[in-house]
Design brief:
It is a single chain. The protein is mainly β and 826 residues long. 14% of the residues lie in helices and 42% in strands. The strands form 9 sheets. The protein has a 16-stranded antiparallel beta barrel with strand order 20-21-22-23-24-25-26-27-28-29-30-35-36-37-38-39. Strands 1, 2, 4, 6 and 7 form a 5-stranded mixed sheet that branches. The relative contact order is 0.05.
C-alpha cells in the first residue's frame, strides 16, 4: 500500500487528510472505508473520480476538498493499493442532544433558533469549528448588554454509535450599571436637555420601580443617532460626535460613557432646487415642498420632503422613485442650498393582484375592496386606501402589500397582498356589576365572515334580570356587483321590567321582521333604506302619570294591557373614514338614521338618531389619539287619531346609563322616573295609599300628594350624550401591542329628557318622598362621569374593564362602580 503526499500542501480548517506523491495511474476500483451513517452511494457522489480515470496530485486535492465540503467527515486519508483507490474517512459525530444550563437572559427557544441558523441541530453532523464561533458570538451578546463577566462554554459528551451531546453552559453574571453619562463640548444645549433624548440613563427616580441603568450597545448607538437628529433638526448641520468612550470600573460592575461632540453653528436655508426629469410635475412639487428659503435647516423636514415627493410620484405609476438631497454648505455665511435630485424612474402598471394568507376568506371578498385595479398604473395611494378598506372588514389582524417586479418586463409589477386572518365569529358574554344591581349577563353569537364569503350571519341571545331576546340577522355587503348591500332580521323579545330594580315595571312581548338595502354614494358614504313590521303586547303596567295620556288616546284595559302593530319605513346615511374597524386611531364615523311608522298605523310616530365619532391622532405613530363622540336622538308622534295628537310609543323611549352611554351609572337608569299621584291619608288613619285613576291634571290646593319612584326609570323621547376619550399606550407593554390592547381615560356627559309631558303643573303639589321635583324636561339637568378603561383582544375574544365615577349626578341616581365584559371568539 502506498501513502500519497501532495506536491502542493493543502490546509483545510477542521479536517485532516494525508497523501503521498506518486506517479499518475488509472483507477481500476474505488473503496471507501469508515462509513457508518453516510451511505456509500452518497459518499461516492462527492468523489470526483470514477473507474477508468487517471489519478494525479491535482485530482487528489480536488477529491479531498469535495469530500470535506459535504460536511460529513472530519478526517480523510487517501491510499493506493495497486491500481485501486482507497479512501479512509472518519465521520463527524451526529448531534443527538442539545441542552442549555444557566441561561436567563436568553430563552431556550431563542438559542435553539440561533443554533439552527448556524447548522447546529439534532440529527446533523457536528462541525466543531462552529462551536467556537458560537461561544464567542454569545459572549459578545452579553458584552453588548453590559454583562462583561459573562462566559459561555460548549461542552461535548461522546455517546454510542458515533453520536454526541452538547451542553452550553452559561455564566451570565450581573449587568454593569451606567454610573455616569458625560457629554463634552456642548455649549448651546445643556446636559439635561441632551440626555432627555437618550434611552440609556444614569439616573433613575426612587419611585420608578421599573427603571434601570443597564447598558446596551445597541441602545447607545441609537442614542447617538437621536442626538445627531436633535441637533440637525435645529439647524446644526455640521454637528458630529467626535469620539465615544465606554470605560468600565475595575470590578466590572459600573460603566462610564463619555461623548465628545462638536456642535458647530446653526445654518439657514439659502435655496431649494428640484433637479431631475420632473417637468410634468415641477409646478405642483414646488408648491408642496415644505422647505422654504430663510428657514432654519431642519433634517427631519428634509427627510419628510423626500418621502412626500416619493409618495406623490407613486400616485402616477412611478414605483421606485429615488429622491436624494445634496446640501451645498457655505461655512462663511452659515447657509445651505438644498439640491433635491429626483429620479422618477419608469412608470409601471399592475399586471396582477394576488392574495396570500386568506385561508378562510375567498379572494373575491378581498378583491372587491381593492381600490388599485389590475391593468392600470400603479398608484401607492390607492394601495394604501385598499389596505384601509380591507382593515375595516374586521377579518384581518395584519395587512401588508408588496410590489414585485415581473420578470422580463420593466414596466410591469405584481401586487401581493398578505393578510393575517383573525377570528371573525364570536360568542360574546357580558358580565356587569353594579353597586345596587349586582350581576347581569349577555350572550351573543355572530359570524361576520360566513363561510369566507364576507356575509354576516348572526344570532343574538340576550338575557338579564328583565329581558330575554333572540335576534336572527343576515347581511350581504355586495348583494350586487355595484356594492348594493341587502340584509334582514327576525327578532323576538320578552321584556319584564317588573323584575328590574331600577326600571318602571311592565311586560312587553314583541316580535318583528325587517329588510334593508344599502346604496353606496362614494367609497366612504352609503344610504340605507328599510321596511319592517313590529308587534308589541304591553301588559301589567302600573299606570304612572307620564303614560296616562298614552292610554287615554290608544285605550287599554284595566290591567294596563295594550297591543299594537306597526309598519315602519327607515332611511339612513353613514360616512366612515376610520383607519380600521377594531381599535381605530384616526378618521371618523358619522351616521344619521330616521324611522317612522307608515300613515294609517295604529300608532304614528317617528324616531331620529345621529351619531358621530372622530379620532384625532396626537403623534405620528398614532399611539396617542383623542376620540370625541356625540349621540343625539329625538322622537315624537305625528298626525291625529280621533281628534287627539298621535304620541310617541313609550316602548321606543331612549335610555342611557352603563357601558356604551354613560359609564358610572346603572344601565338604562338615566332620565325621567315614574310619578304617581296618591291620595293623602287622613289624620291618624292607617292602611294603604290608593293610587288615583284618571288622567286629569292636578290643580293648586289639591290635597293629593306626588310620589316620584326613584327606582322606576322610564326613559324619554330626547337624548343627548357626549364622550371625550384619550387613548394612550398601555403601561408595561411594547409599542406593537397597540393594535390588540389599549387604555383610555374618558369623560362623558348627557341626559335623557321628556319634552312632551307637562311637568310644570305638578310643581305646586307636595312631594311625599322628595323636597324637590326634578324637571325631567330641563336639559340643564345633565349627568357626567369620568374614568379609565382597558380594552384588549385575547384568545377568548374582546375584553373590556372599566372603572368610572360620577362627575355630576342627580340625587338618588343609581351608580355602577365598575364593569367587566368578556367575549369568546372562535
Amino acid at each position: 500500500m502506498k501513502f500519497f503526499k501532495l506536491l502542493a500542501p493543502i490546509a483545510l480548517l477542521g479536517t485532516s487528510y494525508t497523501a503521498l506523491a506518486a506517479e499518475s495511474f488509472v483507477v481500476s476500483d474505488i473503496r471507501i472505508d469508515g462509513l457508518q451513517r453516510v451511505a456509500l452511494g452518497a459518499a461516492l457522489l462527492n468523489v470526483p473520480v470514477k473507474v477508468g480515470d487517471t489519478l494525479d496530485d491535482a485530482t487528489i486535492a480536488r477529491l479531498i476538498k469535495t469530500l470535506y465540503r459535504s460536511s460529513n467527515f472530519e478526517d480523510i486519508q487517501v491510499f493506493k493499493e495497486g491500481t485501486q483507490l482507497l479512501i479512509k474517512v472518519k465521520e463527524r459525530a451526529t448531534i443527538a442532544r442539545i441542552s442549555f444550563d444557566g441561561n436567563k437572559d436568553l430563552k431556550d427557544e431563542q438559542l435553539t433558533d440561533s443554533l439552527n441558523g448556524s447548522g447546529i441541530r439534532l440529527g446533523e453532523p457536528l462541525d466543531r469549528t462552529v462551536l467556537t464561533e458560537i461561544e464567542k458570538g454569545l459572549e459578545d451578546f452579553y458584552f453588548s448588554v453590559g454583562k462583561y463577566s459573562a462566559k459561555v462554554e460548549a461542552v461535548t459528551n461522546k455517546m454510542a454509535r458515533n453520536r454526541i451531546g452538547i451542553t452550553f453552559k452559561f455564566t451570565e453574571g450581573d449587568a454593569a450599571d451606567i454610573k455616569q453619562i458625560n457629554i463634552v463640548g456642548n455649549t448651546i444645549f445643556n446636559d439635561q436637555e441632551l440626555k432627555e433624548q437618550f434611552e440609556l440613563t444614569d439616573t433613575v427616580a426612587w419611585w420608578n420601580v421599573f427603571g434601570e441603568r443597564r447598558y446596551q450597545k445597541q441602545k447607545l448607538q441609537g442614542d447617538i443617532e437621536s442626538l445627531e437628529s436633535f441637533y440637525k433638526d435645529r439647524g446644526y448641520i455640521r454637528f458630529k460626535v467626535d469620539t465615544t468612550q465606554v470605560s468600565m470600573s475595575p470590578d466590572k460592575k459600573g460603566l462610564y460613557i463619555t461623548l465628545n461632540v462638536d456642535e458647530g453653528d446653526a445654518y439657514k436655508v439659502a435655496g431649494v432646487n428640484l433637479i431631475g426629469d420632473i417637468e410634468k410635475y415641477r409646478d405642483i412639487l414646488e408648491k408642496l415642498v415644505p422647505l422654504k428659503v430663510g428657514n432654519t435647516y431642519n433634517g427631519a423636514e428634509v427627510t419628510y420632503t423626500e418621502e412626500m415627493i416619493s409618495r406623490y410620484l407613486g400616485r402616477f405609476g412611478y414605483a421606485y422613485p429615488k429622491v436624494s438631497t445634496y446640501p451645498e454648505v457655505d461655512d462663511e455665511t452659515n447657509e445651505v442650498v438644498l439640491n433635491l435630485n429626483i429620479e422618477p424612474g419608469q412608470r409601471v402598471y399592475v399586471n396582477e393582484i394576488r392574495f396570500k394568507g386568506n385561508s378562510n376568506t375567498e379572494d373575491q371578498v378581498l378583491r372587491r375592496e381593492m381600490r388599485q385595479l389590475e391593468g392600470s398604473w400603479l398608484n401607492n395611494q390607492l394601495i394604501d386606501n385598499s389596505k384601509v378598506y380591507l382593515n375595516r372588514l374586521g377579518f384581518f389582524e395584519d395587512i401588508e402589500a408588496e410590489i414585485i417586479p415581473v420578470a422580463g418586463f420593466s414596466d410591469r409589477v405584481d401586487v401581493e397582498v398578505s393578510v393575517s386572518e383573525q377570528p371573525s365569529g364570536s360568542f360574546n358574554a357580558g358580565v356587569g356589576y353594579g353597586s345596587y344591581g349586582g350581576l347581569s349577563l349577555q350572550l351573543g353569537l355572530e359570524q361576520s365572515n360566513f363561510l369566507g364569503t364576507g356575509n354576516s350571519v348572526g344570532i343574538s341571545l340576550n338575557t338579564n334580570d328583565y329581558k330575554k331576546s333572540v335576534n336572527l340577522s343576515y347581511r350581504d355587503p355586495y348583494f350586487t356587483h355595484e356594492g348594493i348591500s341587502a340584509g334582514g332580521n327576525v327578532y323576538w323579545s320578552e321584556t319584564s321590567y317588573k323584575n328590574s330594580a331600577f326600571l318602571q315595571r311592565y311586560n312587553n312581548n314583541s316580535y318583528g321582521i325587517g329588510f334593508n338595502l344599502g346604496f353606496p354614494i362614494n367609497p366612504v358614504s352609503r344610504i340605507n333604506l328599510g321596511v319592517a313590521f313590529r308587534h308589541n303586547d304591553i301588559s301589567e303596567l302600573n299606570t304612572y302619570e307620564q303614560v296616562k295620556d298614552f292610554y287615554a288616546v290608544y285605550g287599554g284595559d284595566d290591567n294596563g294591557d295594550i297591543a299594537f302593530d306597526n309598519f315602519e319605513v327607515s332611511a339612513g346615511w353613514s360616512r366612515v373614514t376610520l383607519n380600521r374597524s377594531t381599535f381605530p386611531t384616526s378618521g371618523a364615523s358619522t351616521s344619521f338614521n330616521a324611522k317612522m311608522t307608515v300613515p294609517g298605523s295604529e300608532i304614528q310616530y317617528f324616531k331620529l338618531n345621529f351619531e358621530n365619532r372622530y379620532y384625532l391622532p396626537l403623534n405620528r405613530s398614532e399611539s396617542f389619539s383623542l376620540m370625541s363622540k356625540i349621540k343625539l336622538g329625538y322622537g315624537n308622534g305625528y298626525g291625529q287619531i280621533d281628534g287627539n295628537d298621535h304620541m310617541f310609543a313609550f316602548s321606543e323611549n331612549f335610555r342611557a346609563g352603563g357601558s356604551g352611554s354613560l359609564r358610572g351609572f346603572k344601565s338604562n337608569t338615566i332620565g325621567p322616573k315614574a310619578m304617581y299621584l296618591v291620595a293623602a291619608q287622613e289624620q291618624g288613619g292607617s292602611g294603604p295609599i290608593d293610587v288615583i285613576d284618571g288622567g286629569s291634571r292636578p290643580i293648586a290646593g289639591d290635597p293629593n300628594q306626588l310620589r316620584i319612584n326613584e327606582y322606576s326609570a322610564i326613559g324619554g323621547n330626547a337624548m343627548a350624550l357626549a364622550t371625550l376619550e384619550l387613548f394612550v399606550p398601555t403601561p408595561f407593554l411594547d409599542e406593537g401591542a397597540g393594535s390588540s390592547v389599549r387604555t383610555s381615560f374618558f369623560v362623558e356627559a348627557g341626559n335623557i329628557w321628556d319634552t312632551e309631558f307637562d311637568y310644570e303643573s305638578y310643581r305646586s303639589l307636595p312631594s311625599e318622598q322628595f323636597a324637590k321635583i326634578y324637571d325631567f324636561s330641563d336639559p340643564s339637568e345633565f349627568r357626567a362621569s369620568y374614568g379609565i378603561s382597558v380594552q384588549w383582544l385575547s384568545p377568548m375574544g374582546p375584553m373590556v374593564f372599566s372603572l368610572a365615577r360620577p362627575l355630576k349626578q342627580v340625587e338618588n341616581d343609581k351608580l355602577e362602580v365598575f364593569s367587566f365584559n368578556i367575549g369568546t371568539t372562535f
